[in-house]
Amino acid sequence: MSMSGGGSGPGGLQSEINVTPMVDIMLVLLIIFMVVTPFLQQGITVALPKNLNNPDVDPRIIKESSIVVSIPNDGEYYLGKQRLQREQLTEKVDSMLEKIKNEQDRIVYIKSGVGVSYGDVVNVINEVRKLGVDKIGLVADKKKKGAAAAPAA
């Protein structure tokens, strides 16, 4: 038994690739990625409701004395049916709030169009909060017909 050049003997070179170590490494990497992946998600997972029952329309929204701020488009503000500039909105809402004596009727309803930016709605809510209003109703369309108001505290 000589070990010259041939390589076909027991101590010679193999012409086949040994994939066992590579498979072991791949399985370890797969397990690591399976364990780590759930921790890489950003934010908090929230289960969103699938079927919402529409709340009833707040009967106070249709009163003549109710305060309804409408924002149909970005930069357009209406108090009732009167168009106002954003700077005038706080003053007019404050004068209407002074006329309301009953504390439970001091609700400001805010309607906004679908295309209105979130910042415009938040700015109106902030201005109303500065006036000391604790109850703000955000008005949304029902699934089929009418409008609903959900007072927010």
Could you explain how this protein is built, in words?
With 153 residues, the chain is α/β, with parallel strands linked by helices. It is built from three helices and six strands, in the order αβββαβαββ. The chain has helices at 20-36, 86-99, 118-130, and strands at 67-71, 77-79, 82-84, 107-112, 135-141, 147-152. The protein has a six-stranded mixed sheet with strand order 3-2-1-4-5-6, covered by helices on one side. β1 (67-71) and β2 (77-79) form a beta hairpin. The longest helix is centred in the first third of the chain and has 17 residues, at 20-36. The protein is rod-shaped, with a radius of gyration of 33 Å. Residues 145-149 have low confidence and may be disordered.
Keywords:
single chain; 153 residues; alpha/beta; rod-shaped; 3 helices; 6-stranded mixed β-sheet
Q: Report the sheet-strand fraction.
A: 15-25%
The unreliable regions are 145-149
Rounded mean pLDDT score: 76
Assembly form of the protein: single chain
The largest pleated sheet is described as: 6 strands, mixed
Shape: rod-shaped
- Report helical residue fraction: 25-40%
- Rg over CA atoms, rounded to whole Å, is 33 Å
In spatial order, strands of the major sheet run 3-2-1-4-5-6
Judged by helices, strands and strand pairing, the structural class is alpha/beta
* Helical segment count: 3
